[in-house]
Structures are given as structure tokens and as C-alpha cells.
Predict the 3D structure of the following.
Amino acid sequence: MNENRLQDGSNGDRVGDHFCRSKAHGQPKWLFGTMGRTIGRVAALLAVVVLSVAAGYRLRSSTTPASGSADIASGEVDGATQAELSRLWQQYRTQGHAQAATAASGESFAMATGSIDEDVEGLYVLDFTTGELQCAVLNYRTGRFTSLFRANVQADLGVDPAKRPKYLMTTGMINFPRGASAARPGNSVVYVMDTSTGAFAAYAIPWRRELASIGRPQAASMILMDMGRARTVAIRE
């Protein structure tokens, strides 16, 4: 086979002549086009490598304190950094629950949702006719309403039921400190206002998370936190 290639000099001469003619006319397209594409790809790859190394250096510098005691990328985090990350995570979760709270009102009832703890919200329902305020809480293990808390805004606000009262109701976020009692108020309070007098009240839920974690039912009265009045000037009817 090698002898045939050596003997067939005419073909080699024709190929060489063709290349020389193409080069003489400035048109070695197939060779220089391939080389150009290869060089371009190598240059792009080198640029990606350089940029990746630089970005990694900046990330490491920004996430590592001056003492060099924390390295988030490698998973080595000191106590202070871990505490700060935990605080931010809890703040994110709390804000997420607060933003999820909703309220609606009809002719005879009002309802709203509010965070009870990190795992569940409560459903607040207010009956305009009786003034009864209830908070029903689903158990996250059984999926059933196993906890119920009650109050009566009619009695607390001194509303005359003969005047067919109307109410506004909404919920807000609050983080009570943990005390000696086993019952710690939930993460939200419910605000109720009598629209005819402007009197309002705030209620909290005496929540026991350890009972919820094992599916135990809870039943108690709501905690009347405080009351106020939006209208301070008497209106003559």
C-alpha cells in the first residue's frame, strides 16, 4: 500500500498544485476556516475558566469573614454565622406566614386566617348575630380540626345585639416571648372592631405546640389582650 502511494506521485502533485494555486489566490478556505474555528473555541473555553476562577474567589472572599473562621462553600460555619443564618431563616418563615393571612366578610359572618405556629394557621370565624368568635386549627398530623378556641366580642365590646351590629376583622403577626406557662400564645392576634361604635379588641390563642405534635385536641378561651376605640367623639343620632 505504501509503494502504491509513493508510486502514485501524480495525485500528490495535483493536490499540492491545487493547494498552492488556492494559496496564491488567497483562498485556502477549508484549512484556515477550520483553524479559525478551533482557535475561537479554545479562546472561549479559556475565558470561561478564567471567569469561573475569578467568580469563585470573589464568592469565597465575600462569604468568609476576616478571621477565616467560616467557609459557607465548604460547609464549615462557625457558631455566630450559623446563628445569623438561623435567625434569617426564621424571619423568612415568619414573614411568609404573615403574608399568607387573608380575611373576608359577608352579611352575617367574617372569617380570616392567621399563623398559629411554624406549621399551621388558624381559621377565625366571627358570627355577627351572636358575637361569637371562634378559632379552629387543623392538626398537621391528622388533617382534622382538633383545636377550638372561643371568645364573645359582643360581651367584651358592649355591643347591643338589637342594633344588628356589623364587624370588621383581620389578623396580625406577633411573636410572644416564651414564659413559664406551658401554653404560649400563637404567632398571630385577631383584631375585631364594631363598625357602629369604633370599639375594637385584640385576642390571642393560648397554643400548646407539644399537644399538637402528638395529635391531642385543645379547647380553651381566647386571651383578650386589650381593647380600644377608634371613634373618640360622640355622634348624636
About this structure: The radius of gyration is 37 Å.
